[in-house]
Amino acid sequence: MNGRAEIRHPPQTAESGRNVATQRTSNPPKPVSRLNVVDLIQFMAVPEPAREFIVEPFIRERNLVQFAARRGDGKTFINLALALAIATGSPIFGFNVRRRRRVLFAEPEMDGRELQDRIGAIQNGLPNAVEPGYFRLVCHARNPNGLFNLATPEGCDKLDANLGDAEVIFLDSKKYLCHVHDENSADGYTHFHRWLMRQRYAGRTVIMSTHMGKSANGARGSSAQEDLLDVCVQLSRTNSGGKGLLALWEFTKGRGLSAKNQESFTVELRIDGNRAEFLRGDVSHQEDERRQTMLQMSLEGFSQGEIANRIGVHRTTVSRTLNDLGLLKQLNSQHKGTTPR
Question: Which of 153, 204, 212, 297 has its CA 20 to 30 A from that of 316?
Answer without folding.
Answer: 204
